[in-house]
User: Fold this.
Amino acid sequence: MNICVVGSGYVGLVSGACFAHLGNRVICVDNDESKIKTLKKGAIPIYEPGLAELVKRNYKELRLSFTSNLKQAVKSSEVIFICVGTPPRDNGEADLSFIEHVARDIALYMPSYRLIIEKSTVPVNTGEWIEHTVKLFNKRNIKFDVASNPEFLREGSAIEDFMHPDRVVIGVKSKKASDILTELYKPLDAPIVITDIKSAELIKHASNSFLATKISFINSIANICDKVGADISEVAKGMGLDKRIGEKFLNAGIGFGGFCFPKDLAAFVMISEKVGYNFGILKEVQKVNDGQRTVLVKKIEGLLWNLPKKTIGILGLSFKPDTDDIRYAPALDIISELLKEGVNIKAYDPQGMPKVKRVLKNEIKFCKDAYSVAEKSDCLVIVTEWNEFKELDFKKIKKLMHQPVIVDGRNIYDPAEMKRLGFRYVGIGRR
Ligand code: UDX
Assistant:
C-alpha cells in the first residue's frame, strides 16, 4: 500500500519504518525541515534499539522516504496515519491543534478517496472531530473514511512491540476502512479487535490508565511492606502467579515516568471530568506516583542522617532503560528534591546524559561511568535499571565510595547479597 505517516516523532517514525519493512511504500512527513534533513542523511533523532538500521535499510531500498511536503505525500498515498503530537496543556488536557491542522490540510489536498487514521493518543470523540473538520474543508465532496488505530508500543522495545503486538485495535465506521486496515496488519498475524471509533479511542486511555494503576497499587503495597517488614518481591510473585492478576507491571519502585503514562492519565482524568465523571481512582494513582519520589529521598535521608554537603551518586537518568527519553523521568524530580537539600550530585546514564545536560547544565556533575559516580560518594542511588548496573563490581564500588550506602529505587539487587558485601542497602519494600 501507499502510506503517508504525518508526524515523524516516536510513534510516526517507528510505525513508518515498520510498515515499510512489511513491504509498503511509506512517506514520513514532518513540518520540521531540519528533522527531515537529518532523517534523509540516515541519522535518527531519537535513541531506539534497532530503529536506525530499520530506517536506513528501508530508505535505501526505496520503501521509505521523508518529506516536509504534506500536499505531495497526501496526493500519492491512499492511507494516511496521523501521528502528530498531542502535548499536555497546563490543565492536563491534550492539545489537539496539530491534529486539527493536519485534518484540514488533508481535506484540502486529497485528490480522491483517503482513509485517515488517528494513531496519536487522543481523547474519545477526536475521530468525530477529525471527520467534522475534513467534511468542512472537503469542498469537492471527495469520499473518505476516518479510523482509529491506537499504538501500544513501548520505548526501548518499540519495534518488537510493533511487529509482535498482543493485539491490533481498529476503530472504524465502514467496511472499506476495516478491510484496508485488516489487510495492512495481516502480515503481523496478531489478534485484531475491530470496533467503533469511540471504543477504540477509549481502549488506549483505559489500557494505559490500568497499567499505571497496577504500578501505583504495587508501590502502595511496597510502602506497607516497608512498614511491617515484608518483602514486595515475594508479595508480587505470590500475586502475579494468579492468572487473573498476571506477573507483569508489578515491579515496585520510584513510580512511572515517560511521556505516555503521566500525560495520558492527566488527559483521561480531564476527559472524564468533561463528560461528568469524577475518575477518583486515577487521581489517587497520580498521587501515589508523585509520592514515590519522596519515599526514595526519605530513604536516603534515613541512611545519611544530615544531607547538606553530602555527595549522592545517581545511576540512571532516563525514565526507563534502553531509551534516552527523560520526559517526566523520576530522576529529574529526585535530583531537584535532593538539590533543595543542599547535596552535591554526581550522575551517569548510558544514553540520557546529553538531554539532562541541556536541562541541568552544571547543577550536577556528569560522570563517564558508574565507577566514577561511586568515587567519594556517600550514597549510590539506583534510579533506572539499565542492564549494565546489574553487573557492577561491588567490591570495587565499595572501595571507591566514601560510605558504602546504596538506595535501590528499582529493586535490582539482592538485599542479602548486598549486606554480605558490606553495604548498608535499602530497596523499595524489600526485607
Ligand atoms: C507505555 C505503555 O506501556 C505503551 O503501551 C504505550 O504505548 C506508551 O506508554 P512506555 O512509557 O514506553 O510505554 O514504557 P513502559 O515500559 O510501559 O513503562 C512506563 C513506566 O512505568 C516506566 O517509568 C517504568 O519504569 C514504569 N514501570 C513499569 C514500573 O515502575 N513498574 C513496572 O512494573 C512497569
User: Anything to note?
Assistant: Residues 151-155, 208, 211, 215, 249-251, 253, 256-258, 260-261, 319-320 surround uridine-5'-diphosphate-xylopyranose (CB under 6 Å). Residues 14 and 158 are 7 Å apart (CA to CA). The longest helix spans residues 197-228. The mean pLDDT is 96.
